[in-house]
Design a protein that fits this description.
By secondary structure, the protein is an alpha+beta fold. The protein contains 11 helices and 11 strands. It has a 5-stranded mixed β-sheet, with helices on both faces. Strands 5-6 form a two-stranded antiparallel ribbon. Strands 8-9 form a two-stranded antiparallel ribbon.
């Protein structure tokens, strides 16, 4: 580029003959005349077409890439592995040529998705009182001097980002019902829609697309609180990304400072107070206000929860003289007692029948 600029200055400005320019530059007269006649500002060189050693294997490699794109990320073959498979078929070229072809193929696929609209994601935006998100997490705590593993229920309003945590020993129906009931109490109401993953306590069977066979007891809960249950696609955590992020943040910022507690009720009371304190301190990610201030503006848009949902299931059984329970439902005998869960958490635990003498 610099040499071409010098040639143009010598000929057009200084009026040097082509023979003198040839002597100074060492270029042929035909080359100098070509640049001057075309009035080129930037030199262009014609690259000769050279056949690549990968050309006979291009169709095979492209077919492999299409198949690998349909597999899960963990099961895909790497570019190094694809090069080894091509070598086994007779390819004697370099790995760099194969890697360059794969990069070009992925770039073309990305451009095609952008053109057709596939692969374009729209950020989720919610109206006040529109939706809440729910998910389970797993953490450890010291209860009554013992370190126990707990299942933590996370509930979060999608608009104000107000969240609440409650810990339970298991992820049973009754503990799920109690977690949502307590969450609606703390949040001050019920949104019109709930976003869940496909947990077994809510979904009995996953159909094609968004088709779900919802559990009858969970359906009764949703009908009681009048919210519409929406279930994410399998392995699509981004559809409820707010609560997924809350599970991570709570593990880093809340559970690391966790003291010891006498029982699970004291832990849940501490978690509730800590969440309310976070509402006052944390800024909303989109609005220039705290979470507590945004939640106060969203609260009038929430539905009134009404009476708590009764999660108990009562069954009548006949007891024989040998203390065997028969399936025929006639009456409830007085010697039958109901016991709650093994940890005193105050939740609506699944009632279990226990015989007493």
């Amino acid at each position: 580029m610099e040499l071409l600029s010098v040639i143009r200055r010598w000929h057009c400005r200084d009026h040097l003959p082509i023979r003198e320019i040839e002597r100074r530059t060492g270029l042929s007269r035909n080359t100098i005349r070509k640049y001057l006649r075309a009035e080129s500002i930037e030199p262009r060189y014609q690259v000769p077409e050279r056949p690549s050693r990968l050309d006979p294997f291009v169709d095979r490699l492209r077919g492999w890439l299409v198949l690998e794109a349909a597999r899960s990320r963990k099961n895909r073959r790497t570019a190094r592995r694809l090069h080894e498979d091509l070598v086994a078929l007779g390819y004697d070229g370099s790995y760099g040529r194969v890697a360059a072809f794969i990069r070009q193929w992925k770039h073309e696929q990305h451009q095609a998705r952008q053109t057709t609209g596939r692969g374009v994601f729209v950020p989720l935006r919610f109206q006040p009182g529109e939706a809440f998100q729910f998910d389970w997490g797993e953490d450890w705590a010291v209860i009554a001097g013992h370190r126990v593993k707990l299942q933590v229920a996370h509930t979060k309003l999608s608009f104000s980002r107000a969240f609440i945590l409650r810990a339970y020993p298991l992820q049973t129906h009754e503990m799920l019902f109690d977690a949502l009931t307590e969450a609606f109490r703390v949040l001050g109401g019920v949104p019109r829609r709930g976003i869940f993953d496909n947990m077994k306590t809510a979904v009995d069977r996953i159909g094609s697309g968004k088709a779900r066979q919802v559990n009858l007891r969970f359906m009764a809960l949703a009908s009681h609180y009048l919210f519409e249950a929406t279930f994410c696609n399998p392995a699509a955590g981004w559809e409820k990304g707010q609560i997924e992020k809350t599970v991570q943040d709570a593990r880093r910022h809340i559970w690391q400072d966790l003291p010891a507690f006498a029982d699970l009720g004291a832990l849940n009371a501490w978690l509730e107070a800590r969440c309310l304190d976070c509402w006052e301190r944390l800024q909303h990610i989109e609005l220039a206000r705290t979470i507590a201030e945004v939640h106060a503006s969203e609260r009038p848009h929430l539905m009134v929860p009404g009476r708590p949902f009764d999660g108990f299931v009562e069954q009548t059984k006949r007891v024989s003289p040998t203390c065997l329970i028969q399936p025929s439902c006639v009456m409830i005998l007085q010697p039958l007692h109901l016991s709650s869960c093994s940890v005193d958490c105050g939740c609506m635990a699944w009632p279990r029948l226990r015989l007493t003498s």
